Amino acid sequence: MSRLCLCTSKRPFDKCCEPYLTGKKLPETAEKLMRSRFSAYALCKADYLIATTAEKERAELEREELTAYCRTVKCISLKIISTEAGGPEDSEGIVLFHASLQVDGKRMLHREKSRFVREEGRWVYVDGETN
After folding, report:
1. What is the largest CA-CA distance in the chain?
2. How many CB atoms lie within 10 A of CB 124?
3. CB 102 within 8 A of CB 108
């Protein structure tokens, strides 16, 4: 049995976010994509974060900068507060979450209302309103 997933779902990593991060599966919902992106930040998987960002915003991302950012942040826990749409049959979704992070040795709570859409049948992150 693998360790518990980093997205704090209380499910084993190999049955939760790992199949998404390795490309074996696509997240079926906006929430599952949100959780997998949290795990990707924790594991410094910049390529996954770029690939799961909406095409319009993807062009602005730089792999090296994203990797450097991931290395400065320790992802402690994720709490999904609410979701709007974002299900298997939806084309848009919103996920409100709190992420407990540690930056430069200081703990902080990141609150975000993230917007997701489907592009070519798969969920991608568009943008979010923070704190």
Report:
1. 41
2. 21
3. yes
CA 127 centroid distance within chain: 12
The pLDDT tens digits of the residues spanning 114-127 come to: 999 999 999 999 99
Amino acid at residue number 43: L
Residue with structure tokens 């704090």? 8
User: Cα Rg for the chain, rounded, in angstroms?
Assistant: 14
Q: What is the 3-state secondary structure (H, E, C) of 108-129?
A: EEEEEEEEEEEECCEEEEEEEE
Does the structure show a pLDDT above 80 at 2? no
CB neighbour list of residue 69: distance below 8 Å, 6 or more residues apart: none
Domain boundaries of the chain, sorted by first residue = 13-130
Span 13-130: which CATH code? 3.10.450.50
